Every structure is written in structure tokens, then in C-alpha cells.
Amino acid sequence: MMHVLITGGVKGLGHACLRAALNDGARITVLDVDADGLAQLPESVAVIRADLAEAADLKAAVDRLEASDPFDVVIINAGINATGAFETLSVAQQARVVAVNLTAPMLLTTALIKADRIARGGRLVFVGSLCHFVSYPGASTYAGTKDGLTVFARSLRRPLRRSLGIRVQVIAPGPMDTDHATEHSPALDNRGSRVSPALVADAIWRSRSRFMIVPGMAAGSASLLGRLLPGLAGNIMRRVIFEKLQARALAPSDPSL
């Protein structure tokens, strides 16, 4: 039976990945900060409650994972955002985004590899972002963490494949139809135009060998524009995201997935 680890598996994309794994008959472990949400998961799902920004919680989670059976698929999904004009965000907000989105994934990956907890031939999937290609004005720290995570994954790709047979992948979705995305979106944003978490989860499940997965035609087109005409892509993102965020006058925020 396939053994799957999902961080941030209570809501949004992580929960869609959980449903896909359950449909495939997998054995699942979910790590999340939401204790109430974890309690609502099926009894067959093993749960680890941890705030990845807290060193003690992270260590306790690592101890649990090191004692588990090896995982065939690891999906590093947990993440948070903080939106608004860069100068309005506190150092504490930015530090928390970096801790959850970048530091914790790097440390969890290190622990899993050192403890040989990812099975040979297994998959290590990092949830990045379309902002890797087009930037993200109004969420600079978030964008920096996702870009850092992508480069981290790219740097691991060949060494882990050659030495341990582990496939490293990144999925770079655009705006998804989740409550988390809505909270950090501009006013009047058309939620119906966003990609469904189920579609993104399906792309993760089906794309077992490709390194960079960009799900959906809209995201694929945007990533191509970002590569070919980065200046134009940046201008579009500024108008579509940053200027509307300013108009909405969002207070700096830091919710968990």
C-alpha cells in the first residue's frame, strides 16, 4: 500500500491531495496546524499537529516522521501568506512566512532524507507557485519563499535521483479556488476564474516524472509569458494584483492554510 505524507492537508490543495490519495487506496499521514481540522479527517489518516513556525513543534513533528515507515510520496504543501504594501508588513509577519514556507520544508526534507524515510523510487513534491515565472507584487515575501523553494527543489533533483532514486518535483499553480486564496486576493476578484484544487491535485497525482508541473492552460500561458516577456508579465501582475490590493487597503495578514 502506498504511504503518503501531506503537509497542510486539512484544507485547500492539501485536502484535495488527501482525497486523491484516499481514492487511490493510499495510507496517509497529514501534518497540519489545525487541530480541529485534523480531528475531522477519516480515522484511517494518521495526523501530526504542528505549527511549522515553532521550533519545538517542528522538532516533535520530525521525531514522529523519523519513527514512521518510509513514504512513497511526500507532498510539501503547507504555506501561509502576508499581503499588502511591503513597507507595511512587520518583521514578525515576514519571519513567520519564511519559517513556514521555506525553512520548515528545507528542514523536513533534510530530516526525511537523513532518516531514509522516503522510499527508493518515491516522489518528493514541493508546492511552489506561478509567481516563480511572473512575480507577485503585493506578496513579495511569499513570492521569495516560493521561488527559494523551487530553486531548493531544482538543486536536489539530480543528486537525489542519482543517489536514492527519489524523484523531486515542483507544482506551480496559479490562483486556486480556496478560502486562503480569496483572503489574499484583490477586491472584485473573479473566484470562478480560478483553478480548482482538485485539478491541481490530479496534476500532482498524474505527473509522476516531470520536474516542473504547471497545471491548467491559463497558468501555462502565464508561465510562458513570464519567461519570454518578463517585463510585460510584471506590469500585468502589478495592475491585476498590487494596484487592486492597494485599492482594497488590505490590512497585513498572516493566516495559516
UniProtKB/TrEMBL annotation:
Pfam families: adh_short. Coiled coil: none annotated. SUPFAM superfamilies: NAD(P)-binding Rossmann-fold domains (SSF51735). The keyword Oxidoreductase applies. InterPro entries: NAD(P)-bd_dom_sf, Sc_DH/Rdtase_CS, SDR_fam. It comes from the Bacteria. Keywords: Oxidoreductase. One of its GO terms (cellular component) is membrane. One of its GO terms (molecular function) is oxidoreductase activity. Gene3D superfamilies: NAD(P)-binding Rossmann-like Domain. Belongs to the short-chain dehydrogenases/reductases (SDR) family. This is SDR family oxidoreductase. It comes from Georhizobium profundi.
